[in-house]
Amino acid sequence: MAALARSPSPAGTRTLDASGKVVVAGFWNSHAHLLGPAYRNVGKAPAAKLESTLREQYGQWGFTTVYDLASAPGEAQALVRRIEAGEVTGPRVLSTGVPFFPAGGTPIYVRGHDLGIEGDVAEVVDAEAGRNRAGEQLAQGARGVKLFTGSIVGGSEGVRLMDAAVASAIGKVARDRGQPVFAHATDAGGLVVALQAGADVLAHATPASGPWDAATVQRLVAEGVALVPTLAMFELEIRREQVPEPVVQRLVGNAQAQVAALQAAGGQVLFGTDAGYIEDFDTTRELQLLAAAGLDWRQVLASLTTAPARMFGEADARGRIAPGFAATWWCWGRTRSRAWRRWPTWHTPCAPAS
Question: For position 6, what pLDDT does the model report?
Answer without folding.
Answer: 60
